[in-house]
Amino acid sequence: MSLLRYLTKRIAERIALLFGIIIFNFIIFQVLPTIYGVNPAELYVPLTYKGLPRSELVQALDNQFGLNLPLDERFFVYMKSLLTFHLGISMSYQQPVISLIEARFPVTALLVIPSLILSTILAIVLGLYSISRQGKVGDVAVSFTSIMTYFIPAFWLGEIVLYFFGFYLRIFPTNLAEAITSSNGHTLVGVAYWVDLLKFLTLPILFITVISYGVRNILFRNNGVELMGSNFVNYLRARGIDDRKILYKHITRNAVIPVVTRVGIDIAFLFAGVVFIEDIFNIPGLGRLLVRGAENLDVPLLGGDFYIISLFAVIILLALDLIYPLIDPRVKYE
Amino acid sequence: MNKVIRDLLSRKTFIFSIVVILFFAAIALLAPVLTSYNNPYQVSQQFVAAPYAVPAWATIFPQYHDLPPDVRLTLTPVSASGVTPVNSSFVKITVPAGGEVNVSYPIRWNWSSPYNVILSFILVPPATSDFNVNLYMNNINIMELSPVPIPPAVSVTLGKPNSITFSSQTINPSNSPYVNSLPFQDQPLASLEFPKAVLPRPGMYYLVISLQNTGNSPETFLLSNPHYTSLGYAYGRLGTDDNGGSVFSEFVYGARFDLYLALVASVLIIGIGLIIGLLAGYVGGFTDLTLNALTDFFLLIPGLPLLIVLISIFDLTGVIVNVNKAVLILLIISFLSWPGTAKIIRGQTLSLRSRTFVEASRALGEGKLRILFRHIVPNLMGILFAQLAYDVPGVILAESGLDFLGLGIIGFPTWGNMLGFATNDLSFANGFAWWWVLPPGIGIILLSTAFYYFGTAMLDVLSPYKLRGE
Q: What is the four-CA torsion angle of B87, B91, B92, B93, rounded to 10 degrees?
């Protein structure tokens, strides 16, 4: 019974959040222009299209999407279009926004998911090192480096890494198109394609790994250090269990829980976090799409991309809420 | 208080943070004293040296050893027959009929070739038109002055002072014999090749002004000592950017702007967070529920995309016609960053509200407001200071990120702008411009880390109760 209540409460909360995001989108993209005397349709049309003058295009859009309706009626039209993924047509790409997003979703996933796994492993390994040498030089150095990684501007270090390893040492390819075409200009197929693609993605993946492991490492270390002084560890020690076994078996298992939570949150904000890295390494993912939309003031693209990124975050957070009791049995269904 | 200060000073990380923060604060405050260029993105403040000039101190490294600094010289002639000094800056030259007198000006050049060469002097030719003046440098005819200007000769007015300027950047086939002597396909590049031709390597070079008299009677010329100017490839403390603007000025004014923006934004964030956190935590009930939902909402919206969307849409709808873009960015960043602070303050207020001393004062009949401001807020001081310090790095990073993407401040150097422009222009040709790319990044990291440690120290020392975590 309590489980059911917990689930319904969580789902209701997340649906409310989604509703809030839609309202927020509506305010930004529809109400704001109207307040400042701009017809939202004008933000969705290029200057000319197929020889038609702008005013006619605006009128056509007004008719089609009801953009000249009063705000309250327009809200329902807007909500319906978002919920059915009718996100409009990008002005700069001249393609439906949803198909642009569909094409770029796997790219970002391919970039982010391996780095997420790698950075979690890195965080745990370094964390174990820190815990076993608590307070010594090694621990201080590792913790300091982790804290530093919070504050390193990704766009700065990324550019330096790209130029050093890509252009100077020439270890990694720097251009996606070059990486996946053979020397005579045909696109590679099969295994060769994937090998070369991965060769290209290695540098950004490693870079994201290094830049994002810090938070998890500190979480894991602080938790582990705290557990080291706890009663159950003292008890285990008193029973004569090997220190290594305590560390690897008991402490790791307990200290990893907040790290898992953190990874979940990171997955939720997956596509939001790599905007800069996609921009630097020139990877055609969702973040870069957003930046391109902002550069070209492409409102349908901006709105659609932002909506999808937020929607993904909501869905993942909901999933996280649902599986969290499985990870940490101590959590109570309130 | 004394104990607090002693406690703070015993922490190495606090000392580090104070030193770094004071360093950047000093740079920011003393900016007008440290540098004479307040906005190197303005055209009038560019080309203080060659583009991509390395820092002056970098010439200690072997690969930059020979790079020239900015050079300004007043050349003095070698004494020769027919050349008589009039005063300290003018010489009088008498050229016999049909003869020629060469005035040589030695230039001691200790470096590799400069970016450009500018020569200027005043020539008072005789009143008759039977003469010709040629300028030679390193035995190359660089300029010809004549009363009858047939290109590439340049005209002079007879009998009056002419101020002559030769600039390697404006040479073309119609004003310099040097350009004409080049193969046709090389002529467009003459201004780049010129410094390499006339000052190829360290050594002794001569500027020769050759005065020819083609008439039948001796003529007298007056000539001022030429001024030699050239932009060098080694400049100042941090070199120059792609437009020859001083990177040090950009760094200093960037630090000034970033610190100012970050502090103001943090204060705003703390303000919003404190109000919402106190209301939610202290009033409780429905207020708490609503405010908490609002906080969660802002906490869960992906921040950076929202920032990008908001900036663009405000740009587009003309919201910012009357508002400074810096103010807009400040407001948006603060508007998006308060939830974390609010959550922490709410949690702390909740825990303080149920402590015995608060209950005791309530039992003594103190008013709600009095309890709030006399008992709860003072106990939040440590957290407030810590949050203030923790928010600074976030604001700096967010603002720099926007600038880097080209969506932020325009036309004014900030660290983000510097990084954006610098990383766009990285290449082998300029040695990856490390003097331009590294300082803003290191500045951001140092300042952020310092503020983080400052906040941690404040939290530890000022909190009356041991509060752990962030």
A: 160
